[in-house]
Amino acid sequence: MRFELNKEFVEELQLAIQERSDESIKSMVAELHPADVAEILGELEPDDAHYLFNLLPSELTADAIIELEEDDREELLEDLSGQEIAHAVIDHMDSDDAADIISELPEEKQDEVLSNITDIVQAGDIVDLLKYDPDTAGGLMATELISVNENMTVRNCVEEIRKQAPDVGEFFYVYVIDDQGVLKGVLPLKNLLLANDNQKVKNIVEDIISVKTDDDCEDVANIMRKYDMVSMPVVDSIGRLKGRITIDDVVDVIKDEADEDYQIMSGITGDVDSSDSVFKLTKARIPWLLIGMGGGILSSIVVKGFDSHIALHPVMASFIPMIGAMGGNVAIQSSSIIVQGLANNSLGLDSAGKKILKEVLGALLNGTIVATLAFLYNIFFASDFALSIAVSLSLITVVLFAAIVGTALPLGFNRMKIDPAVATGPFITTINDIMGMAIYFLIGCLCYSMF
Question: What is the 3-state secondary structure (H, E, C) of 376-428?
């Protein structure tokens, strides 16, 4: 059943917590999904959240903790000892989630938590996972999975699956390995059910796509999306099975990447949100604001270079905002399409030249439309033929230039292994503001000298 958090529920729960009515509290949240519990914990005051956390079963709180926003999770775990975190949270988590939680803790508390984990095998798996870069498949994977040897019979295979299943929350595939632990493929349950009991697993195994531990998380997400996979095996450099990545982890990667690209495109560096300190928010924004300020200064220098021309034809100054806005808008439109295509691998195999040509043709059509409308406006309302020609030609030229820059920059950044999202937002707008002013006044000077 879907749960919708509302103010009345929170107030009722807070009242129950204040009255220490434990049975009422348990009845209100016991049947909720961990994600709903996480949402509730995030809405409560810190003291109330701690009380609820300590009251709920460890399995539920462990699942809820991983669903919390990072800031809320940090605040909740801050007052718990390493032993409490280990026993109430980590002992009830899969290795990948446990590694994520531990990696967020201060170094001294990390050691304390690891030393208090009940299952020494799980502790070892977590330590191994912490060695991987968090943005790689190794940092994303869980070690809990079902694997069988290719030389087993079907009967022995079923027995082995039964032994391993209690230690794995959910499993979608049975992975097949050889005597050295090298991944040989996947065993579909249908093949297992239809096979003869004495048949060897190696005879009914099927191929499966895998990724290496050092593969980038974003590449993993794209592969799983492309092949509609709900779980992906992870192998080391010589093909030995090391873990698996499930679809819920990939959804988190996609969301994180989308949030990061959106912030970069908006002119914000680093991972920030509204709850961060003023200093952190300022630090994330000021670099792009300085770039914008620098671009504004350069644009003013360009405009100042045409002071004498503006003095003769002051009406030209009234169209500066329109020229700048059109160039910036077209550049952001073009770059956003390219960045989106690069992010989801939907650009196909066309060369960079073909992509630029396509944007140029689209820009030519769009530029012609807006230039025509601007020309008609100036003819009827400005009664200045030279100005009408200057504005119209400038619009077409600026739109074409913006489309080329908006397409070429993200493609170039991507080839240089730089996040193409950097090419959008303030960066590309600043470039087009400067060039747009130069193009507009150069064409204006030419038109007024000719007409």
Answer: HHHHHHHCCHHHHHHHHHHHHHHHHHHHHHHHHHHHHHHHCCCCHHHHCCHHH
